[in-house]
Write a structure and sequence with these properties.
By secondary structure, this protein is mainly beta. It is 0% helix and 43% strand. A hairpin with a 2-residue loop joins β4 (46-47) and β5 (50-51).
């Protein structure tokens, strides 16, 4: 399960749902994203076309910008 909001926890809801194997979601037009991740170890994430190496492995809240990501809560 993934919830994606623009900017912060109170930002506009962009996506909420469960991704199926092989399914992808792209979030290209936003400069800052707030993600709540139910099972991030099941996801393959990319940022600027590159695999994210430090993606959390347990349920987490993550802030993503063009410069990288930061886990703010687990």
């Amino acid at each position: 399960w993934v919830q994606v909001r623009s900017g912060s926890a109170e930002g506009r809801l962009i996506y909420e749902g469960t991704l199926q194997r092989g399914q992808a979601q792209r979030f290209a037009k936003w400069t800052r994203l707030w993600l709540e991740l139910g099972a991030p170890s099941n996801l393959d994430a990319q940022l600027n076309g590159r695999a994210v190496r430090d993606f959390p492995q347990q349920p987490s809240i993550v802030i993503v910008t063009a410069k990288g990501l930061r886990t703010v809560s687990t």
